[in-house]
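Most newcomers find our protein records easier to grasp once they have seen one. Sequence and backbone structure share a record, each on its own labelled line. Nothing more is needed to start thinking about how sequence determines fold. As an example, a complete record with its sequence and its structure tokens follows.
=====
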Amino acid sequence: MSSQARSTGIVSIAILCSRILGLVRDQVLGGVFGMKFAGIFTMAFRTPNMLRDLFAEGALSTAFVTTFSKKIKMEGDEAAWALGRKMMSLSLCFMTMVAAAGTALAPWIFPLLTLGWKDESSIALGVWLAQIMYPFITIVSLTALVMGMLNAKKVFFIPAVASAFFNLGCILGGYACAWIIDAPFRGGVITEKGLAGFAVGTLIGGVMQLAVQLPSLKRVGFKFGIDFGWKDSGVREVLHLMWPSLVAASGTQVNVFLNSIFASFTPGQEAAAGWLGYAQRLQQLPLGLFGVAVATVTLPMLSRLATEGITPEFRAALAKGLRLVLFLTMPCAAGLALLSHEIISVIFEHGRVKAYDVAQTAAPLQAFAFGLVFYAAIKVLQPSFYTIGRRFIPMYTSLAVIAFTAGANALTVFVLKWDHTALAWGTAVGLALNFTVLYLCMRKYASGLETGSLVVSLGRIGLAVAVMGGICLLSKFTLMDGWAGMGTITRCGALGATITAAAVVYFALTKLLKVEESGEFLSILSRRLGKR
């Protein structure tokens, strides 16, 4: 079993805890406040969350891990730790200014996201919530740097599981704050103050996510301190890598940002933001479990290998990462698409979330499921360009995809008058185009990128997914027939049995078809279970 696959398994298990708690967080928010308020909260968190994905967990993280990993190999740990202190000091100062600017400009930024909304009270509430949550970007930028340093030192579990503490803080801290500051909330009456409590909970969760990683960072040798030596060559290299990475990473995030604006003009308005947000949350579960997990493990490895050029070892590691992503995300994508209604119903159809909301969320989930495999592969492929010094290719590709998606969404919303589902399909097609261009470019630089073995794996995995999909459809029209009349326990049992049967069939077939990644995954799973 390769160390790459083993580390990916460790990270996936940790991320699973986080993603499950993330679903619980959304379930609580929708169930307690309803889809309209959940949509307002989603839109209020959109800009801080986008800044997190772009700066903290996107461009900054990629550029920093690439430089930090090379620094360890070329100059040793002490030089790398010094770079870490300089970048943490710089991030603290810069992101605090960004958060302050966002808080001050929220009355102008939030209305731009919701141009189609007609309810002024919804806009005012969204502005207030956004102002509460903007400081989150400062906290999470420090968290991303800590996570990057730990990953570079081959510590993967704690950084991955730390995001579970974020979701836990959001749920418990948010509920506690709402209970304390809003007396009507304690009696079951929904007010703006109660929702503000959950906004404060976001900050509590961010602090918890950072704090839980600090002991591990100290154990691997980091010494905390402030260092304003920002003219250092390492800092310049991080910033040099960061700005094209920022543009490249912005592709998906800018599309999400634009989708928010377009969604405000669809019939659902406030609720449409919630429907799209919940569908994306379910896409993020396998994306985080497998796409982000593989990328987290692969990037430091590629950064170290790239110091010697594009060697056969570099090519093999990248190709291995892509095959792992295909093996793990293709069945997830098929399952999400075929069982979208049932999955959303079991998870979210509680409290103030009704069957109509389930139907409106299931349709975009099918589109996001199509884009899942491409999105996960981009997570692995895009950072590899920075390790070999080809940083502008992802940037130009991302800009082209942003233009395509914006044009397609404007056409579907303003001309064809389609609903929010069209926005999800525009995003998914954009992801497919993005991956195709990046793959063809990397194939040129990496001497074919073992395309032959990738195609063979794709064919075998595709066959197994097709049979697995047949199991899902068979269950949909037999075991889960009459879904609307089933109770909650019966629904959970039927869906659980279907997913279990589909997973068993998929892994059995991939093992039978000699898919290499299947054997490694099952070996990891058996070892983990054997330790219990």
In short: The radius of gyration is 23 Å.
